[in-house]
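Collaborator request log, item 7. Partner lab (contact: R.S.) asked for a structural prediction of AraC family transcriptional regulator to inform their binding assays.
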Amino acid sequence: MAEAGELAALIDRFSGADGIQPTAIPRLVLIRCSQPTEPLHALHEPALCIVAQGRKQVMLGDTIYDYDPAHYLVVSVDVPIIGQVIEASPSRPYLCLRLDLDPVVLSALILDAGADDATDQLPQSSLQLDVVTLELLDAAIRLVRLLATPRDIGMLAPLAEREILYRLLHTPQGARLRQIARADGKLQQINRAIDWIKKNFRESFSIEQIAAEARMSASALHDHFKTVTAMTPLQYQKQLRLQEARRLMVGLSLDAAAAGHEVGYDSPSQFSREYRRLFGAPPARDVARLRETPGMLAGTLL
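Returned to partner:
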């Protein structure tokens, strides 16, 4: 598709260097990578991801989502994932835009478009792929193109963003976007549980405690939480703990015992076992590898 080539040229122009590049347009991030990466662990926030060039895989639980210029990715809640750029080179780098999904913007659009669905559907997996349409691609091009004329961003970027979201509403992802926007829906109950875990991941908790925060029964929370995130609340907590410990060891030079204690582990041996199971190497070896290859640090190339 010629439009994909145009979007790739725009992302290449305005990203400049490898990595994540925030832009002057609110919620719009450009991502560039000139070589395949190792698997990267990160907490992915709600977003639309459109690849203009190259290919990437994201793993959530046992499911692999493979997307490229023909397929976009929608993420509906904050969820720990493993991402890996699998097709990129210096001459044809991986190029992607990420548009973070704001529930307030979505709610206003749904209200204006008359696209609200009064029924609260059961939550779905937080990740979903769909086919890129020409209309969606055209709106994305016009949004990124505004980076060339900063004076127009304040007036025109919200219009281009609304068009992108409007196009998504009229795809199979429409129900997912309406769930993100609903303040009283089941997905927001799961979000309340996720927010509580993110704020208190260092502390022990029971499923009943999280269920009370989410205003759900313990059994309903367990089932819906696993459907959305592909993990239980305790597994979600463990992912957050280990990712934060990794960040502390790399960024603040804490040793494994100190980092494990900081994120809530009482047993250094348990911390080392669970760290190795998630990241594939003991803490000291993994941190040494990360320091040798800074681009492998979690979250570098979402």
